[in-house]
Amino acid sequence: MRRRTLLTAAASALTAATGALATGCDSGASARASGRGGRLTYGVWDVYQLPAMRKAAREFERTHPGVTVEVQLTPNGTYWTKLRTACTSGTAPDVFWMNGPNFGLYADSGQLLPLATDGPDAVVEPSAYPPDLFSLYHWKGRQYGAPKDFDTVALWFNKKLFERAGVDPPDGTWSWEELIENARRLTDRRRGIHGIAAPVWAQENYYDSIAQAGGWVISKDRKRSGYSDPRTIEGLRLWVDLIHRHRASPTLQQLTDTDPRQLFQSGRVAMMQACSYDAATFWEDRGIRDQVDVAPLAHGRHRASIIHGLANVVYARTPHPELAREFVRFLSGRKASLIQGRYGSAIPARNGTQEPWTQAKPSFNLQVYLDAVKDAQAYPISANTAAWSHKEQQWLARAWSGHEDLTDAAHSLTRAMDQLLAQEGKSGS
Amino acid sequence: MSSDVTADAAPGTGAPAPGRPSGTGVPAGAAAAATAPGGLDPAALRRRERRFRYRDKWWGYALIAPAGLGLAVFYLWPVVQTLYYSFTEWGAFGGTEWIGLTNYRTLVGDPEFWQALGNTVVYTALVLLGIPLAMVLAVLLNVKGMRGTGIYRTLYFLPVVTMPAAVAVVWRWLYNGDVGILNQALSAIGIDGTFWVSDPTTVRFAIAAIGVWMTVGYNMILLLAGLQGIPQDYYEAASLDGAGRVRQFFSLTLPLLSPTLFFTTVLSVIQSLQVFDLVYLILGANTQAGLTNPAYAEGQTVVMLFFQKSFFDNQRGYGAAIVCVLFVLIMALTAIQFRLQKRWVHYG
């Protein structure tokens, strides 16, 4: 009955918690009984990466007799809700995937085990990964995550639309001015074609342009919002202007009704900025595979893009901390990274293991995603990133849609974000 | 309804508690026994009756125990807990701290809550407009000798048994501002359609239209059942008295259907105030667009806000306060409706 949805929603967390608690006690007991060997659980959310993860787990089992690793898939939609509940009741997987926006929450409340970065017990070597990716999983002086993969941002373009408009394809030398100018020239309103898509996307769009403009999202001590900084606003203005002033992008309403990727794939948008994992989407679409390619982002005051990536972390209350760390060490190692790259789903984080990923889709110039690492900036996070990133979406959408002046929206966002950051400092649990 | 049986019998027997000496129940039971039909000795009948009562009662409790326990553990106890948590600050990983009325104070000053409440009330009011529509459909389908009623009934009922998620996906395409069927149809008659679910001025109406579409079949079936329960002789008598079709509808059909209408109204209000999945998906909150729909603020419902605060922003205590207010609101509105029914509902 739909009538019960409210109660069900309210109850679900609690009942899930009690259920997990009951089963958790069992598994904990049996694991302890089995002694030194033991059974590890590994929590992941991406079904496309499941084969690679299973393969890596089998490999680990082969080199560690008596150890079994169970890869547990929870779809992205419920992964975080479930994980939070499981952590509360002490039953989370021994090792699991972590991302930037959620990391602060788990690290700050002591749900993760620190990983040694030097000495004989070192689990991860800092020098083996892009520094801004490595530092993403650093919290209050300790390392909690071993980078698993990364995603950077680049500019995708439709060669056919460029040809028709007589515009030279992007080659990595473009400035913002050239990006705007070319987006305008590519726009053909009669045919319903726009030069570029400017959705309110953080990692793909405005975090990059903020960095390119020399602005900042959050202060180094994670206590203040940077949204009132004129340079930050300049970074935001690029996108608002592309929609309203230059009319080179579909409006926010159009981009809400139809996903920008779909507009790009159907040839109604000539350019879009996308993360490395979107390469698979464009590759799978045989209708456009030969028509599109990818180039480095345009530069503003600086050349910059955002790097984000997942990490493997160890649950603080795992019954097998040593074994779990050993597994994480293996997953971040060369062998497991190469397995991951060969399956082609995500760029392995470990330096020198990325070639197989770029070669998996030969007609795309995927090298640009690897080159982006050298100008990359870390994804901005705090202890409760989700709370202010929702404010970010809500306020910026008002500016993007034209309902509110950008500067006003940015100031309102600063106030809301500062308030949430102050709360983080207070609770500190 | 089985509850009627016990309700009727209870005053006569005084419902003796189990294990009590049987003698004490006699004075109260006497009244019931005196009116008992059949030729048996009243005292014997009384004894037998009481024996059955004991046994029946225990069987009754035993049989409802599984459902009752489930209800208590999964519905009632969480309600109590939710009420408790609404007075606490609940960290993302547990660890509650009693903060008294702070959550409720925040809520009163939170414009987002009031906006969401307003949206929800507007949605509910608009969905209630579907009841007259369901009434018209039910009357039409009740016309004798009409062909294809089975097909129409099924067609109107189909949306009721369709998953809201599927409904949302399809309607998002219908409403699409660029390529939606709705705007294509409108452009054929020279109207330039808007972005229905990402335009702040139209979003509530667009969503409520789906709400009506999804509930009209259910209400129609209930009303149809109510219509068919009205004896045909009333209409014959009315036409003999010279009442036309219109007069018959307002003086006969409407009063006799009022209990069903009351039921559908109460149910619609309760369901609409809790609307979540349909609106969540229509606004695209599950996609990468997230909360950036320009009409998000104008579309968000109370339960969506609760979901957002509790499960994404990690403010579960505050989320609990939101649903507690909604709970009280639903209770109050239902109570008011039961009060008002005396003015317009006719039983029999």
Notes on the structure:
- The complex is a heterodimer of chains A (429) and B (348).
- Chain A is built from 18 helices and 15 strands.
- Chain A has helices at 5-33, 50-63, 76-88, 100-108, 131-134, 159-165, 176-186, 202-213, 230-244, 252-257, 260-265, 278-284, 321-332, 334-343, 355-359, 367-371, 385-400, 406-427; strands spanning 39-44, 68-73, 95-98, 138-139, 142-143, 145-147, 149-150, 153-158, 194-196, 269-275, 292-295, 305-307, 311-314, 347-348, 376-378.
- With 429 residues, chain A is of the alpha/beta class.
- Chain A folds into two domains: 27-151 and 308-369, Periplasmic binding protein-like II (D-Maltodextrin-Binding Protein, domain 2, 3-Layer(aba) Sandwich), CATH 3.40.190; 153-307 and 384-427, 3-Layer(aba) Sandwich (D-Maltodextrin-Binding Protein, domain 2), CATH 3.40.190.
- In chain A, the strands form five sheets. In chain A, strands 2-1-3-13-6 form a five-stranded mixed sheet. Chain A has a four-stranded mixed sheet with strand order 9-10-8-11.
- The radius of gyration of chain A is 23 Å and the shape is globular.
- Chain B has two domains: 2-85, no CATH class; 102-344, Orthogonal Bundle (MetI-like fold), CATH 1.10.3720.10.
- Chain B is built from 16 helices and two strands.
- Chain B has helices at residues 2-13, 26-34, 42-85, 102-108, 111-128, 130-141, 149-157, 164-175, 181-188, 203-228, 232-240, 245-273, 277-282, 296-299, 302-312, 316-344; strands at 88-90, 96-98.
- The radius of gyration of chain B is 27 Å and the shape is flat.
- Chains A and B meet through helix 1, helix 3, helix 10 and helix 17 of A and helix 3, helix 8, helix 12, helix 15 and helix 16 of B.
